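ARCHIVE RECORD
Type: protein–small molecule complex
Small molecule: thymidine-5'-diphosphate
Source of inputs: curated submission
Record status: active
Notes field left blank by submitter.
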Amino acid sequence: MATAPKPKSAYVCNACGARYPKWAGQCQECGAWNSLQEVAELRRRPAERSGGYAGVVDSNKIETLAEVSPEERQRVQSGIGELDRVLGGGLVAGSVVLIGGDPGIGKSTLLLQACAALAAEQPVLYVSGEESPQQIGLRARRLGLSGGGIRLLAETCVEQILAHAEQERPRVMVVDSIQTLYTETLQSAPGSVSQVRESAAQLVRFAKQRDTVVFLVGHVTKDGALAGPRVLEHMVDTVLYFEGEHGGPFRIVRSIKNRFGAVNELGVFSMGDQGLREVKNPSAIFLSRHDQPVSGSLVMVTREGTRPLLVEVQALVDESPLANPRRVALGLDQNRLSMLLAVLHRHGGIGMFNQDVFVNVVGGVRIAETAADLPVLLAVLSSYRDRPLPLDLAAFGEIGLSGEVRPVPNGPDRLREAVKHGIRRAIVPKGNAPKEGVEGLEITVVRTLGEALGAAF
Ligand code: TYD
Ligand code: MG
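STRUCTURE (tokenized, with ligand):
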């Protein structure tokens, strides 16, 4: 029997693509420093191809686009509604899902719960490179899961994992985490960019060829310092990230990329003794209910993914002792806040040059859409003037640099959600008001920032 050829690796310059057999600090071709990265050198002989994964190569033939059967991929429900929602309506066979997030935020907990629900219907393999089977067993007991159908494997070598998976043939496989894996084809340490990339590439290949759903857990530090998961985002079908305040009870899972569904879809959970529980009505948790109207607070209607959400924005404007007053935005883009303050000065005639401005979105959710512009400015002004806005008032709308208030997508949808949660008055852009109105809601349409300020104060 011929011995397996020793795996080879090479080093490639990130900047110019030059290849080297050994690592060096500087690329001789283009002069870039620290640009050489280890890559696996797969020397496939032509005969090897057809033997690799039997039958698969033969099926790769060229088709006309019109002939490709457009049948919707069959989805499997994970049994956790909010997870299915961020995935775009369930798990898609053969897809690879990357779940990122800070350490301890609940990645392993969520996947273990999902596995327990899925294992009732199909074979599930949970591969852990971080925890021993005993630790996972302890967690399962804590979560009150029977763990009946879940197969466990504690292993960090990708080749070994795939060998086991070939035997087990799971429909769903979890790998926790990708940073702990290594492949025999590379010599660099587990967790390095090249190891992470090569390990993931092998797992992606397995998912596609065996029609298995693969969940990859990825670690990121606060400032996203770890390069690994960023590289991964291009290779996988779906990227989910945990966000939200670590200390608080709520955990928000957001889809950053999804080949099978909407991006920015949110799944909301609360972390308790029994692990993660779905929050079925998330608007309720992002509204901090005050008994009395307070200045600097306003409800906005945002739309993340396919679901409208009511969120409270809070602002505090206070005289600044600093030469450069502070502009702090939590859950919002700081540059956007600076821009809005400039528009407020230029088109509303209100300057805040000697004031610190703090803006916070309640509940730790991150708002990326421009519909937050109008409510943010109204909250800021409410705090500045110490004029509380009504508790049953909501607003949304984008503000342009020339002081115009622009419509945002899905206006009627947002208004209906607002009414459902007890909102009775709304300030909205002209283009967003439904012609026939919304029952139980007094809608004020505005075209410019000036009109909006007039309507609110
Ligand atoms: P974990 O899921 O291991 O996080 P990750 O895999 O993202 O690093 O742990 C989540 C945290 O949640 C951990 O600090 C303990 C806590 N926790 C609960 O509060 N309740 C529970 O039922 C469980 C299992 C964990
Ligand atoms: Mg974990």
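CURATOR ANNOTATION: Residues 107-108, 130, 176 surround magnesium ion (ligand 2) (CB under 6 Å).
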